[in-house]
């Protein structure tokens, strides 16, 4: 199966092309957050270098959030449109789980962290089972102190991953002592190749049209509106005209 | 290469739209998914909410547009997309989808300025004779654009502050009308009289620029003062007085522009171009100028839609304007000023 995988959830941009278990090409950039401009040219360049054309692709695997709203929309809109227009399979994987895929130590816990400012984070807790990070505590948007309060690692080791993880080093060491391990600068980056390998094992989404990023957070306008209008939610706010 | 069939995308504000256009002048399909009911909750467009709706709708719009036009990807010769001006997150969905489809099927990509789309929606009405002048009035834009030749757009006048449509929304709020207020204010104005005599901004100044913030303040002062002395003002008269002031300024500046740049066609375009008061006032004025004909974009093509982007894309392809898959959204994209050229 020929697979394109991509993640632009945060500052990093990572793309890979795989054929079953073989990684044909991969590229990761970490400097400029110019995903709208760089993503398709990088995909195009890698495809050309491995002698593939878009119609050779059979599946797209995308890290679909959480993360920067614009970032997750660029990868998700690209993946969704590509899968739809080529009539191929689409798989969405949590961007936090994508980062957790870097850790392989069986039985250990993994806490991928995206800094969402003002002591807020997007995070989740995973445990490595059969080489794959499985969700123990669901991905969420939360105040970091409240998040730590919810976590009991027992005697396990917890890997804090992500380039934002060092922002929370003191609090993590305070809570977990020497049981917390910070990853190196390679494991802190999302790797599209790992995302592609993992995404091949999952079932594709059933309805591509309804596929949207997992924001894990309402916009402020919607949250305020909901609070002031309990029970007034309608199913569709969009209508076709013409 | 002159494209026969164009697929076009528009997502600069609160409408997700995909169209299929033949020869730049015939609409095979024009699917518009509007988010107005969502943004009504907030009294105006919330950018992040708009972006979220666009990504929900985009592939559905593509599918519907292709089905209605009965075309396959093999039939599509070019893809045109609005890349600015507008809300950056909203623009990015149309740009990303257009680029992805162009890349997947190896179809040329044409970048389109949203405003040129509004103006060239007139191609669906008649053949445009150049030079031509356009008055573009919408929620985000109020400008006079001179086109010396096809595909050449130069600003000769624009708003210094609020767009006309913005002023309508703000005044509408005071009159108790929900966003978007334009059509309702227009209807109320038809029932009222211009009794308040609000200021006609910049009417005396020797340029083609507009300003609506002074008018908005005068309106708010009047209603605020009445509230304080518990006087009930006639809302229809307020609407009529506000609308007359807007229309007078627009018509006056446009007629003056026509004196300096005599053209055979004046194009009235943009969301506010559907305003009945503006249409009839401009019609009346242009009727008196034998050498100039008024081209009104039909109501259903005045609001944001992808058909107009297809029409503009066709013209840009003639000028050999194409983009690569590195095309980015440009939220503050604008035409050059004519004075910079001269």
UniProtKB/TrEMBL annotation, chain A:
<feature type="domain" description="Gcp-like">
    <location>
        <begin position="31"/>
        <end position="222"/>
    </location>
</feature>
<dbReference type="GO" id="GO:0002949">
    <property type="term" value="P:tRNA threonylcarbamoyladenosine modification"/>
</dbReference>
<dbReference type="InterPro" id="IPR000905">
    <property type="entry name" value="Gcp-like_dom"/>
</dbReference>
<dbReference type="InterPro" id="IPR043129">
    <property type="entry name" value="ATPase_NBD"/>
</dbReference>
<dbReference type="InterPro" id="IPR022496">
    <property type="entry name" value="T6A_TsaB"/>
</dbReference>
<keyword id="KW-0378">Hydrolase</keyword>
<dbReference type="GO" id="GO:0005829">
    <property type="term" value="C:cytosol"/>
</dbReference>
<dbReference type="GO" id="GO:0006508">
    <property type="term" value="P:proteolysis"/>
</dbReference>
<keyword id="KW-0645">Protease</keyword>
<protein>
    <submittedName>
        <fullName>Metal-dependent protease-like protein, molecular chaperone</fullName>
    </submittedName>
</protein>
<dbReference type="Pfam" id="PF00814">
    <property type="entry name" value="TsaD"/>
</dbReference>
<dbReference type="GO" id="GO:0008233">
    <property type="term" value="F:peptidase activity"/>
</dbReference>
């Amino acid at each position: 199966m020929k697979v394109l995988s991509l993640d632009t959830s945060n500052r990093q941009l990572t793309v890979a092309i795989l054929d079953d278990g073989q990684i044909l090409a991969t590229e990761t950039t970490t400097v400029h957050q110019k995903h709208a401009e760089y993503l398709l040219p990088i995909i195009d360049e890698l495809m050309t270098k491995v002698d593939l054309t878009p119609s050779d692709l059979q599946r797209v695997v995308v890290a679909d959030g959480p993360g920067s709203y614009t970032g997750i929309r660029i990868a998700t809109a690209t993946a969704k449109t590509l899968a739809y227009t080529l009539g191929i399979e689409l798989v969405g994987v949590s961007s936090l789980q994508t980062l957790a895929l870097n850790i392989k130590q069986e039985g250990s816990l993994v806490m991928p962290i995206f800094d969402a400012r003002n002591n807020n984070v997007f995070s989740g807790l995973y445990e490595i089972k059969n080489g794959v990070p499985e969700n123990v505590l669901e991905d969420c948007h939360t105040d970091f102190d409240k998040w730590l309060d919810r976590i009991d690692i027992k005697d396990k080791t917890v890997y804090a991953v992500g380039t934002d993880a060092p922002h929370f080093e003191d609090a993590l060491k305070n809570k977990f002592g020497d049981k917390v391990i910070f990853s190196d600068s390679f494991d802190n980056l999302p790797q599209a190749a790992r995302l592609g390998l993992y995404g091949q094992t999952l079932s594709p989404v059933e309805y591509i049209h309804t596929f949207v990023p997992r924001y894990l957070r309402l916009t402020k306008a919607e949250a305020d509106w909901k609070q002031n209008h309990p029970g007034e939610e309608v199913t569709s706010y969009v209508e076709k005209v013409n | 290469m002159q494209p026969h069939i164009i697929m076009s995308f528009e997502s600069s504000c609160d409408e997700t739209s995909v169209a299929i256009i033949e020869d730049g002048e015939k609409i095979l399909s024009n699917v518009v998914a509007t988010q107005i009911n969502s943004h009504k909750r907030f009294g105006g467009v919330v950018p992040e909410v708009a972006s979220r709706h666009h990504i929900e709708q985009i592939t559905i719009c593509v599918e519907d547009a292709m089905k209605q036009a009965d075309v396959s990807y093999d039939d599509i010769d070019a893809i045109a997309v609005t890349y600015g001006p507008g809300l950056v997150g909203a623009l990015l969905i149309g740009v990303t989808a257009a680029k992805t489809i162009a890349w997947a099927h190896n179809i040329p990509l044409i970048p389109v300025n949203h405003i040129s789309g509004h103006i060239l929606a007139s191609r669906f009405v008649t053949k445009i004779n150049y030079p031509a002048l356009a008055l573009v009035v919408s929620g985000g834009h109020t400008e006079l654009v001179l086109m010396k030749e096809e595909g050449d757009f130069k600003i000769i006048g624009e708003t210094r502050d609020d767009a006309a449509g913005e002023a309508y929304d703000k005044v509408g709020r005071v009159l108790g009308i929900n966003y978007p207020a334009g059509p309702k204010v227009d209807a109320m104005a038809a029932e009222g009289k211009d009794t308040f005599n609000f200021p006609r901004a910049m009417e005396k100044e020797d340029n083609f620029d507009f300003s609506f913030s002074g008018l908005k303040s005068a309106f708010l002062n009047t209603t605020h003062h009445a509230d304080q002395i518990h006087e009930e003002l006639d809302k229809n008269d307020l609407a009529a007085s506000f609308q007359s002031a807007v229309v007078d300024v627009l018509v006056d500046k446009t007629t003056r522009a026509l004196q300096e740049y005599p053209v055979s066609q004046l194009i009235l375009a943009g969301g506010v171009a559907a305003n009945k008061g503006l249409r009839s006032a401009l019609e009346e004025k242009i009727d008196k100028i034998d050498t100039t004909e008024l081209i009104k974009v039909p109501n259903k093509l005045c609001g944001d839609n992808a058909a107009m982007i297809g029409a503009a894309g066709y013209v840009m392809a003639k000028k050999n304007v194409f983009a690569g898959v590195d095309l980015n959204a440009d939220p503050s994209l604008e035409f050059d000023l004519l004075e910079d050229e001269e």
